[in-house]
Amino acid sequence: MTEDLPAVRTLIVDDDFRVADLHAQFVAKVPGFTVSGIAHTAAEALEQVRADRPDLMLLDLYLPDQSGLEIMRRLGEAPTQPGVIVITAARDLAHIRAAITQGAVHYLVKPFRFATLAERLNAFRDLHFRLAELDSDSGEADQQEVDGLFQLMRTGSITTPPKGQSAETLRLVRAAVRHADHDVSAADVAEAIGVSRPTAQRYLSALAQQGLVELRLRYGATGRPEHRYREVRGS
Predict the structure, then answer these.
(1) Average pLDDT of 216-227?
(2) Which of 14, 34, 133, 215 lies at 20 to 30 Å from 235 by C-alpha?
(3) Which residues neighbour 235 within 8 Å (Cβ) at sequence distance 6 or greater?
């Protein structure tokens, strides 16, 4: 998916310069994400949201001028409203409840492992582009799609197929992965079954989300890692 879609532009908001830089490094390591900016105060964060329109904000709640919760309350005034993943040392239920009420999609307590952040970022990316697909299609969602979106936000996976997905194409893509004697790329699958590479990538991503194929990253000398897929044994 990330090879064919624009990167999720991410704003880092933390008053600690060292921590903000560390979070920016984490984000840059996750395929499909780019850092749009770094802010160390609430005022800087709101200004960058208005000027740069990021897709996602990694937001600390403790800032020198205003609470991160106040930033979340004021995001509705911006031309576009980014998703928010709260990253904070606040563990009390008052902050957690307020962040949920204000619409945070995830809440990470410092300190945390990179793998934990990567998992939350990947879930947000999938949710972000699923919403974009629905918006470009009909701008509406039926109950099954709504349930799938909320499941994706909660768990990072989805069991209902994307709208418009062909069961036959899904079967062919899965068969191409199963019958290969090595892991395959979206381009390999596209050539094998006669579809476009973006189409193969969409179906491979759906299979990976359902745990039917395994995604592996192959790192080269430069650039982003190549996405490779193989069958999950016993699936």
Answers:
(1) 73
(2) 133
(3) 211, 212, 213
